[in-house]
Structure formats: structure tokens, C-alpha cells
Amino acid sequence: MRYLTFALTKGRLANKTMELLEKTGITCDEMKDPASRKLIFVNEELKLRFFLAKGPDVPTYVEYGAADIGVVGKDTIDEENRKLYEVLDLGFGKCRMCVCGPASAKELLKKQERIRVATKYPRIAKDYFYNKKCQTVEIIKLNGSIELAPIVGLSEVIVDIVETGATLRENGLEVLEEVCPLSARVVVNRVSMQMESERITKILKALKDVL
Ligand code: PRP
Asked: Does the pLDDT of residue 33 top 90, yes or no?
């Protein structure tokens, strides 16, 4: 039997995923050693392999079949736009993609002004403003601490993830519009879905049962 390979998003999402998999009887003790620098972990009995990757790389591994199954945030799935199947909402990692800024920016949004939008998610931001709102904007790609942009005058608003809202509050910003709800999702390689349908379906069913 060939290995079925999982690509997990390094960090909290991977830990939550392993907790959930354990409830279904899928374990990987090798992965629990926090001192280990190993990148790939195996469950020989079940012929499963697990590796940890940066979020935006998970859909890439899954599209090319280097991983059969991936667990990654909906934000990353939409932004990366890879050819894969999104098959299950795991319900954790819940947050929202929002347009945020100072209260004064509300007027600019309402009047459909040609504003600047800073974001780590240019595809999502572009789709929202151009296709959903029919508003022409200038999108500026950043890599983190997006909340800085409107504070220092790089942009009028941002498109970013809001979880508790604490980052916004502490920086004098607020949610102006909601783009979409987010959470962790299971994605599957298109060929694996056919070739390994029995094993994958069984895992997905087990996950649904413990959710
Ligand atoms: C994310 C997001 C916000 C923050 C939202 O950033 O970009 O900045 O979390 O969480 P809150 O609503 O609970 O305050 P992250 O910490 O992932 O880092 P980043 O700024 O490098 O993107």
C-alpha cells in the first residue's frame, strides 16, 4: 500500500488538526516531540505520512500531488486559487476576512472612491472590490502587520483577517465591511480523490463523525 500524505499548516492549525485526527484513531507520536527538527512524520501501521508547511505552500503541495490531503485556512485556499477539491470545513480557526480602516474611511467606501487597499491577500481583495463591489481601487501587497498601512498613510483601508478584533481596537481601526467568513478546511488532490477514493472517503467520514 502506498503512503497517503498529509500537508498540514505549521502552527496552531496543525496542532488542532492532529488533535482531531487522534479522536478518529489516527495518531503520529513522532510528531509530538517539540524539540525535533524533522520535517516529515510517518505512521507505518496506517501507511500515513504527515509534513508541516507554511500555509500558502499547502495548496501547492496538494495541487501537484506531493500531498494527497491538506489542511489549510479558507483565506489561503482562496488566495492561492490552486486546482484542488475543498471537501470539509473543520470548524476551527474561525475568523473573518474584512475591509478595515479608520471610521473616516466609511465615506470613501460609500462614494466608491479610488482608494488604496493594503493587504496580504491581493487576489481576495481584488475579487471583492472589482467583482463584488464594482469599485476600482489600487491594491498594495504587504506581508504582515497590515494594520500599520492606514495608520502611517500607505492606504486608506486594509483587507485582513479579524479574529478577536483586538489588533484593530488597539490601533484605532474598525471593521468597515465583511468580505467572508473563514475557517480551517480539508483539501484533496484531484487525482488522489479518484485513485485513493476509498481511503480518503473513510478518513473524511471519520473526521465528520468526531466534529
Ligand atoms: C492576523 C491578522 C491580524 C490579526 C487579527 O495577523 O492579520 O493582524 O491576526 O487578530 P485579532 O482580531 O484577534 O487581533 P497575524 O498575527 O497572523 O500576523 P501578521 O500581522 O504577520 O499577518
From this structure: no
